[in-house]
Amino acid sequence: MNNEAIAKLLKLIAHDPQRWDAYQKLASIMLQNEEFHAAEQYFLQAISLQPTLLELRLQLANLHMRTQQFKAAHESYKQAIALDPKQAQLYFLDARALRNLGRTQEAILRLRTATKLAPQLIQAFTECVDLMLQTQQQSQAANMLRQAIIAHPEHAQFQYRLGVLCQQLQATDEALQCMQRAIDIQPTFAEAYHQRALILQQQGNTQAALASFDEAIAHQPNLPAPYNNRGVVLCQLGQYPAAIADFRQALQLNPGYASAHCNLGLALFENGDAEESYTCLESALQHAPHHAQAQYYLSMLKLARGEYDDGWPMYASRFQILPEKPSLPAEALWRETGSLVGKTILILAEMSLSDTLQYCRYLPLIKTFKPNQIIVAVPEALFDLLHAFWAQDAAILVICKDGRPLPHFDVYCPMLSLPAVFKTRPDTIPASLPYLAIDARYSAPWQQLLGPTRRLRIGLNWCGDADNKYDKRRSIPLYLMAPLLQMEVEWHSLQKEFRREDHIMLKRFPMLECHHPALTNFTDTAGLIMQMDLVISVDTAVAHLAAALGKRVWLLLPHQAHFRWLQTREDSPWYPGMRLFRQALNQPWEQVIDEVHQAITDCLAQRAIEH
């Protein structure tokens, strides 16, 4: 049939070479037969006879798009636009050609023009927003969506997308309004309920967030993300069994959901199952090898298990998810031990005061590599203590990490990366004690104030910084210490600050001497600690300071303890002689206090024998 039609058209052209319509029909037949080159030639012949006919330019441009000749397509669309500059569809089609040529900004301009000429062209708004987002133009994309909503106020998807963008741009109030409008337009819009829940969670409205997650799940029960994110909120509320059930449901719907594997691992750990937690975090990394959160938490589990060879290198993942990270050149990072002759190395304290006190033990090891100088940037709270300790060592300069420009250095290393650099294992920890000391002028006033005693003198630290994320877990209410404070012991508070409830309890415990007005910095605290026979502390910087000074320390640990204390051990390879008292799973602190009471009783009995 086609051959017969082609023959007739060719005969017609032979009779009248000006029949452009015959060339057009031939081109269309060739296009149907997928003889693209022939089709192109016939279209060009037709255009040469009718150069101002828009239909021909458009057909040729569409052929070029079909054959992925995007540059030629753009030229044809451009010529078509010149013939009819008010036709929005031409700008829209040319934008697709430009996008395929990688000329994104020009494509965006074409789409903007299309939306102005024909606001009813929904796809032009959609593709313009897509291109803006691909090129990280979030604010411009949000403005384009606002224009789309003016043209299409009942378009739920536009409301939803603007809400997502506003959330990313920290405009959470507008984001919430957009999600609500999307839901009003389309009451079964599960993704909008889900996104609204995420915004409410971000605003701290957890109960409303949970209700919105419930709505999302009710409307689309096979969507895994709402289960996963509802589980995150339940974890924040401490409802770990319910969170675990949600994460498992998300994984049943999507077994490759790396974030759900990771979140399940975290929830299991908080619920006391470190073994399955470890397995889940490994699964997360099998599905997403670069999942930073899974790497970070798995590294800490490895370190808690004593798997230092893998754990310390993996712990570098902290810089991908924690807000505090050194903005220093990667090429200057000290990654492995080697000669530092003639070089200045900068050691940056990070994380908590406890970490600085624990890992500053590595500074003498760095000296063995003969650096010109070691600069140690430490938190202001520890500056006086550490500056005084190393004041006589010309190789070590302690500076305050306070945001001011850093002095010149050749290489640098974050302090918590030092164990990885030195390939530290539990049996190679530099654990010689004491590795800190204070000048006699700081301890003498305390010695004079407290005077001699025949009784066992114990320093007590029962709580840390109330703003710490894990404070509720690690701190112990003072009233629980009552059985200890009633023993025949000389008790001294090592607390620099008290909480409101502490002031009430201290009136009931006059046997606990308080020195907080005189504890202006860690040097003062160190001077007081040196007068103690024993320090009993929760997991705070005070415990690390006492142990680093070589004092006897009993540490009271929550069930989910920091990885530095390893798992199940009653001692610490970081601080030989330290004794760990661990809270059992789902058990109150009273169990730990009872154990400490018995240990003090045994200690008093031994002292009685020795004296």
UniProtKB/TrEMBL annotation:
Protein name stated in the entry: Tetratricopeptide repeat protein
Organism: Methylophilus medardicus
InterPro entries reported for this sequence: Glyco_trans_9, TPR-like_helical_dom_sf, TPR_rpt, Ycf3
A GO molecular-function descriptor: glycosyltransferase activity
Keyword Coiled coil: no
TPR repeat copies, ranges: 20-53, 54-87, 156-189, 190-223, 224-257, 258-291
Keywords (A to Z) from UniProt: Repeat, TPR repeat
Source organism, top-level taxon: Bacteria
Entries under Pfam families matching the protein: Glyco_transf_9, TPR_11, TPR_16, TPR_8, TPR_9
TM stretches of this protein: none
SMART domains in the record: TPR
Key word Repeat present: yes
